Here is the input.
Amino acid sequence: MRIDLHTHSTASDGTDTPAELVRNAAAAGLDVVALTDHDTVGGHAEARAALPEGLTLVTGAELSCRLDGVSLHMLAYLFDPDEPELARERELVRDDRVPRARAMVGKLRELGVPITWEQVARIAGDGAVGRPHLATAMVELGVIGSVSDAFTTEWLANDGRAYVEKHELDPFDAIRLVKAAGGVAVFAHPLAVKRGACVPESAIAELAAAGLDGIEVDHMDHDAATRARLRGLAADLGLLTTGSSDYHGSRKTCRLGDCTTDPEIYGEITRRATGAFPVPGAGG
Here is the structure.
């Protein structure tokens, strides 16, 4: 089985619609794909309706969190999307995305980038607006050569000149909310240092003690040494280890299935989840 547990669609900052994403996942030879858009479940219904036969959909979301001033992302799998407390927190994060993006547009303009809110809104469409949309606008303007070039201290990295904070969950609260909604919580790309500051390993241990289920180990932003270090940490803490592409369509260079999750780990995730269940494709 080929299992990719971290992808994005136009419901947040990917370039594939949810329907295109599941069709592309099947074409890439995946058996299981998780749709984990940022702070939203808005793409799930379309993905279900278009799910090809032979592909299983895992519903999820990537939750925006912050601990001691450091941003981090929590992958939530197979939770009840209607559980009110978690739904309310996702809404708070989404509602803060527009004023935050507008503020970053203002900072970029102060830095001499001729970006406009209308341009960013066009790129984001109906998706939850985020930094990749601003980065795409900067590419369109010729300011940078690729979306990844925006995620530096010069521009939009967590400590960048044009960065603006947004409402984010405390990760301990995120774990509690995900578990209360019957879901499984996995810390996304925990040591992706190229994205900016990362929480220390001691914090990962504290999150594990609070109920964290796993950590994403095999990810394009983790080199071989980092992956080995994380596997050792996971073994010490009794955490599951996952792998995934973090696919964003044409917005990033990674491809569906570039990194995958062991079938036994996937089985354990589905066993732990009680809020929702994987959806088998019926040829939609």
Summary: The longest strand covers residues 56-67.
